[in-house]
Amino acid sequence: MLNISNPIYTILPLIIGSCLFVLAVIIYKNNPKLVTNKTLSLCCISGTVWFYCYSINYIFPIYPALNLFLFKLGYSFITIIWLSYLHFTMAFLKIKDRKLLLFFYFLAFIIVLFTLATNLIIKGDYNYFWGPYPRAGGLHFIHLLYAGFIWLYCLKNLYKGYRNKENKYSLVEVNKIQYVFWAYFIGNSAAIDYIPNYGVEFYPFGCINVLIFLSILSFAILRHQLLDIKVVIKRTLIFALLFAIVYGLVSALVFGVNMWLVR
Question: Does residue 2 fall inside a structural domain?
Answer without folding.
Answer: no
